[in-house]
């Protein structure tokens, strides 16, 4: 099989294949049982943590689990809690922060006693940040609480993160990167109970709102394997990379192009969808 190199794009696209799009049609066309918050949380927790390709070790240290409207809410709730100047990020972070005017710093510039949010794997390299162990060391020395954005793990493989480090305070995962932005739903795990918008939503309004979101999330989890991305497209990803001289990353739909000088991620979603 031959592949068109012009279909390798600099802009990342989620994998909107026929099966995923078919589930959306099925959800809106058929009648479905209502799923409550109480029913949804354990199902979602089991689904998100059931990956055979991503190992999050030590999740039992995070007993407080809340439903989120995707990891965007995880980020925004964190920002609202600490204020725009009350938290820090590293350079080469998720573009969301830069678009909102938040600038990152280098490792040596991290401030003591100031919480930090980190995207893992990052969307620049498609890997766990090379300085991860150094981040943990500095966080311990400077009393920096870490909050981990795992949104991209839904499309990733070969990841193992030890969450037992005491400076890691929360992490969030969502389904959105499976081209499910139309029903944004995820979970946040916290080491200690915190009071913010997510907590309030889950505590006071869980029986009154979002039932349709829970029910749809449950429906999707019943029909999509947790490792759907790599299980469906892993062999094709490898073949594309070999024939086009591209380098694989942790993400099934993102690669590196050694011929490009930007060293950023490039997207093979059009090739995956066309040739699957």
Largest sheet: 5 strands, mixed
- The strand line-up of the biggest sheet is 2-7-6-4-3
How far is it from the N-terminal to the C-terminal residue, by CA? 11 Å
CATH topology of the largest domain: Aspartate Aminotransferase, domain 2
Gyration radius from CA atoms, angstroms: 19 Å
Succession of helices and strands: HHEEHHEHEEEEHHHEEEH
Low-pLDDT ranges: none
| Number of extended strands | 10
Question: For this structure, what is the CATH class of the largest domain?
Answer: Alpha Beta
Q: Strand pairing plus helix content: what structural class?
A: alpha/beta
Q: What would you call the shape? A: globular
CATH superfamily placement of the largest domain: Type I PLP-dependent aspartate aminotransferase-like (Major domain)
Secondary-structure arrangement, i.e. CATH architecture of the largest domain? 3-Layer(aba) Sandwich
Number of helices: 9
Mean pLDDT comes to 92
Number of domain modules: 2
Helix content: 25-40%
Task: Summarize, please.
The chain has 276 residues and is α/β, with parallel strands linked by helices.
Overview of this structure, please?
The protein has 276 residues and is of the alpha/beta class. It has two domains: 5-22 and 226-275, no CATH class; 33-223, Type I PLP-dependent aspartate aminotransferase-like (Major domain) (Aspartate Aminotransferase, domain 2, 3-Layer(aba) Sandwich), CATH 3.40.640.10. Helix content is 35%, strand content 14%. A five-stranded mixed sheet has the order 2-7-6-4-3, with helices on both faces. A three-stranded antiparallel sheet has the order 8-9-10, with helices on one face. A two-stranded parallel sheet has the order 1-5.
